[in-house]
Amino acid sequence: MQDVLITVVDFGSKKLSASLGKGTGTEVEIVASQSVPSKGGIKKGIVEDIDICKESLGEVLKKLEWLSGEKIEEIYVGISSKNLRVTESDGEIYLEKGEVREIDKKDVIEDAKKKVSLADGEEIVDILVNFYTLDGRIIDKDINGLEGRDLRVNITFILGYKKELNKYKEIVKEANYKLKGFVVNIVSGKNVFLYEDKSMGMHALVDVGAEITDIAIFNNGILKYISSVPLGGENITKDLSICGKYSLVEAENLKNIYSKNYESMYNDKTTDDVIEVGSTKVSKELFYEVTQARLEEIIKYINLELKKTSFYEGICSIIIYGDGLVNYENIVSIVDNTIEKKFKVVTKTELGMKNLADISSLADVKEVYDRLSLIDEEKIEIEKSKEEFKNSYVEEINDENKEYEDDEKPKGFIEKIKKFLMGRY
């Protein structure tokens, strides 16, 4: 497989995060990542304002181009699992030439697509090739050139509403980029947490974001179920704002500073009851009671969502991650008191990251690259004129980027995540 350039933008309710990767051979190298505020363009996983999203998209990609030195023309869009569903289908063809060619792989996938039943207003969001079968032999890698007659494929199709997907298509088009396809963020999480032998058995991934929590269930690495819960870390901010009569900015600052030790702070009777950030003051008791109540509610609804599926009894582990929840001091004990299954709460420290905002776009890059290897879609040639482009482009936006020009480059945590994505941790 020739070198490819992959750019993925995760459209989150709080941030748009973008990552750029280069694939060479069997590996993909994460070159750079950037994020910018969504500015209200996305609400609970749904596009609310196309113009705002277009501006944010242009901003994050311009910054990503500057950091990477690569000109970006084509992107994949990472989206929430809200209003999506999955279905499986099998394709089968006879190989007249006695070996697998590129056209044969496309034909067998098309055969599987024909068998998918779409509801009114639905379209195929994404195609996940689980494995091929050649004359009865199961093969989960590239099958080009292999000899045989009976070629079959098992595919998981992710389906969604055209009306919502068209909004993303319009955003990308108006921002003057080409949309290569969609990637569902929670599905890509398997590349971080369910790699190699860790994918065996039934596992649930739970990504808690700002306004929505995405859920996916995998069996032996194959997607079986996706869903979402309309709750996230932003609900805690709003609760603090209402109960304490603070602005959302003040409540968010309080949350970010004290979430990591709010229980210890509450139990410490040797200090004053009032804590403060600048001129904003709040009672330790109020902060604790409001935060604790909402955390318990979020975990409760996640548990109920998992329990209502037919897969719950078979789940052997639940992996919870995402900036919306995992950085609270006592979150493990709250989960333990609610969820009866074995679970793991993954923090940014364990991943070697300053924050988890970029984890979805990073995982999406790996997902796209793996898919290109298996389906062998149209390749993107990496440009040879990197230095020429960088010299002209940096001059154009140099002034605009003064605020982050001298910041620490993302080499450190990018390298750690790259290793994590490749299954070396």
Tell me about this structure.
With 425 residues, the protein is of the alpha+beta class. The chain is built from 14 helices and 18 strands. A 5-stranded mixed beta sheet has the order 3-2-1-6-11, with helices on both faces. It has a 5-stranded mixed beta sheet with strand order 14-13-12-17-18. α6 packs antiparallel against α9 and α9 packs across α10. The radius of gyration is 23 Å and the shape is globular. The C terminus is likely disordered.
Task: Please name the defining characteristics of this protein.
single chain; about 425 residues; alpha+beta; five-stranded mixed beta sheet; 14 helices
Main β sheet profile: 5 strands, mixed
Shape label: globular
Seen as an oligomer or otherwise, the chain set is single chain
User: Which regions contain 5 or more consecutive residues with pLDDT less than 50?
Assistant: 375-425
Largest sheet strand order: 3-2-1-6-11
Strand content: 25-35%
Task: Say how many strands there are.
Answer: 18
| Radius of gyration from the alpha-carbon trace, in angstroms | 23 Å
Mean pLDDT: 83
Number of alpha- plus pi-helical segments: 14
